[in-house]
Design brief:
single chain; 123 residues
């Protein structure tokens, strides 16, 4: 059995210096309070302003809805992810544009209606 060494343990201590907190500001004098103008912030100043986007609403007749559904059935590349041309954005945009021109509406309104319907059916 080896002999025990005495005093071989060394203590390691580190000194840590903590900065004291800064002193608090002096309280206002009574003369300063009376002379200072009173400003109350309005709730509109504190609230962040939201960016408003124009909302697009699309209302179609039953006949127009059937026409859109027939268009979608004829062009499954718009909604079927398995198709090779699903990622072809130029093709899909041209299909939406053709349908919008045919119906006399905008592409944005058609897409809004389509997205609304898929969202409602997914719930």
């Amino acid at each position: 059995m080896p002999a025990k060494r005495k005093g071989s343990k060394t203590s390691r201590t580190a000194e840590v210096y903590v900065h004291p907190p800064p002193p608090p500001p002096p309280p206002p004098q009574p003369e300063e309070i009376e002379d200072a103008p009173v400003e109350t912030p309005s709730p509109q100043d504190d609230a962040p302003k939201k960016t408003k986007f124009p909302r697009t609403t699309a209302t179609y007749t039953d006949q127009q809805k059937e026409e859109i559904l027939d268009f979608l059935k004829a062009n499954p590349s718009i909604y079927e992810k398995r198709r090779a041309d699903y990622k072809n954005m130029q093709l899909k945009e041209s299909l939406w544009q053709q349908q919008a021109d045919k119906m006399g509406t905008s592409v944005l309104e058609l897409k809004t209606w389509y997205n609304s319907q898929t969202t409602n059916l997914g719930r």
